[in-house]
Each structure stands twice: as structure tokens, then as C-alpha cells.
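Can't paste images in this forum, so I'm doing it all in text. The chain is below; anyone willing to post the predicted C-alpha cells underneath?
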Amino acid sequence: MPRLSLLLATAGLTVAVLAFPAKANALGPVDVEIGARAGLATGTLGPLGFGIGGRGGVSILGLYAGIDVIDYLGATATCGGCSSPAGEGAPVVVKQSRSALLYGFEAGYNFKISLVTIRPQLGLGNFRLSSAYGAPTPGPSASSNYVYFEPAVVGLVSLGVFFVGADVGALLLPTGPDSALTVHGQIGVTF
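Text version of the structure:
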């Protein structure tokens, strides 16, 4: 009977230790982040709709470098009184459908205050925009690639090895059609 109690106590302690992992500092002042992002892009760029993606990065002594991918699933908008797609004739009602895939690099600096991390950062990469126009419905889609810059501010709250947060950025396309405001929620792990 004492053996069974010892075995159960050991098993219970093992489960408790594994259920609540602590942050490992085997890498020293290095943090690795992997997270999921979901949100919206809106502005003069046109409808991009809901976006979902992920990011991963490394922080060394507060300096952050990472990669980011997000797929804006698309939306359709109506432009009443637009010129015809060919640019001729009287104004017509045109439907515009857009979606985008954004992928690139991001770099920033972490300011930590207790469990909160504030990170000003800059993203740089490729923005693949798929657009379709038509009256009364959008026609075939055409795609274009643009270089993007995305200055942003990220706020993260640490919950053990997990984090939740949000980011707000300005998606700028220097050689493309206008810009957009981006807002995303984030959830992930740090180790």
C-alpha cells in the first residue's frame, strides 16, 4: 500500500510539473516566438476582407527579427458612378473584388514592462494583390506584386509560455495602389 501511495504521489507531481511549464532560459537572453494572427486591412486600397496568418521570430537582448505571412481572404465592394472598366462612356455600377497574400520580414525592438511587451517594428516584403472588376459582377481575376512597408506597433501580454496581443500598422505600397490600415489579434507561444 505505501508503494501505491508513493507511485500515485510521484505520478501526480509529474503531471503537475508538466501541466504548468516554466520558461526555460537555456538559450540565455534569447526568446523564440511563434504565433497566429487574424484581423482586417481597410483603407483606400479597397476591400481586402478578413486576414489570417502566422508569424515567427527571435528576440536577442530586445532586438526582434522575424517572418510574417497573412492571407487576406477578400471582399467585394460596389462603386456606384464609377467610370466603365474600359474608361469610356457614362458612369456605371462596377463591382470590385480583391484579395491579397502578404509575406515578408519584420524587425523591431521590445520594451518590456512586467508581463507586457510593446514592440515598434517595421515589416518589409511582397504584397500579392488579386483584383477583379466588372459590371454587374466581377470578371476574371488578375494579380500584381508590390513591395510593401508596414510600420506597426505590437502589444503582447505574457501568460507563462503563451502570449496574447494585438498590432496596428500602416500598410504602405510605394509602387502600388494606395495604402491600408491593418489591425490584428495575436496568440502564440514563447520559448
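Residues 4-11, 13-22 have pLDDT under 50 and may be disordered. The longest strand covers residues 63-82.
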